[in-house]
Design a protein that fits this description.
The protein is mainly beta. Helix content is about 15%, strand content about 50%.
Length: about 250
């Protein structure tokens, strides 16, 4: 670390055996957003600054300081557990990841963050809906060589592979498909329109070159017919290449 030159270099940051949970409420706001939300009352911010002379001096200075440069060659999350509850659905959807691993390189030249060499693998993924009923599972999801350029608002992901999907598609008499029920929204479309107002912020450019689904298993039933139809699809593999949207 060189404080005079305002830069620091770190070889590796290793964070093993962590656990993170998040909840998205019916309004579409994640609880973590509320935890780190900026003060809404300007007078409170001003009061906080004025109460500390050092902060007040920094806030009023006209000097332009050189941004701090930080480089971390290797950041690793090893064997984390993740839990996510989505309450925007009529029947809240709980997703759990038994073993999440992530590695990346982090650079902040001139204060602008860039995340590169992203490698990630999530193992043992499950989704549960009504009455704690499991509706889908994945053996693993693997992401390779991704990068996120914050200043340029660009995300590039060369490859995402979903392996070992297992789920059911059921059609009951006089009822919609089970997945239509699972994904039914908790609020009306009118309320969703209000909640999802267009933002003045510039859109991000996202590039995803390859998406693959490997060894998927689907159980399909149509119980609405006089003679119910049952079909099982095993080891389904699909690949999609060159996907890009802005």
């Amino acid at each position: 670390m060189d404080l005079a030159a305002r830069n620091a270099k770190v070889g590796q940051v290793l964070l093993p055996q962590g656990s993170v949970s998040a909840v998205m409420g019916k309004t579409g706001t994640v609880n973590w957003q509320q935890a780190f939300a900026a003060p809404t009352n300007e007078s409170e911010s001003a009061k906080a600054v004025s109460s500390q002379p050092s902060l007040a001096k920094a806030a009023n200075t006209t000097d332009i300081e050189t941004p701090f440069t930080l480089e971390i060659a290797d950041v690793q999350l090893q064997h984390w557990k993740l839990a996510y509850l989505d309450q925007t659905f009529l029947n809240p959807l709980q997703t759990n990841v038994a073993d999440f691993n992530l590695s990346l390189a982090l650079a902040m030249p001139k204060g602008e963050m860039a995340i590169t060499q992203i490698q990630s693998k999530a193992i043992g993924i499950s989704a549960k809906s009504t009455a704690n009923k499991q509706v889908a599972s994945l053996d693993n999801v693997q992401l390779s060589d991704g990068e996120v350029l914050i200043a340029e608002q660009k995300v590039s992901i060369p490859s995402v592979i979903f392996s070992g999907l297992k789920t059911q598609i059921i059609k009951e008499t006089n009822k919609p498909l089970n997945w239509q029920t699972i994904l039914a929204p908790a609020t009306s479309s009118a309320n969703n329109t209000v909640a999802n107002k267009t933002s003045n912020k510039a859109d991000w450019a996202v590039s995803l070159k390859k998406v693959a689904l490997e060894n998927a298993s689907l159980h399909i039933e149509d119980r609405s017919l006089t003679t119910p139809v049952v079909m099982d699809v095993e080891k389904l593999t699909q690949r999609c290449v060159i996907v890009r949207w802005i």
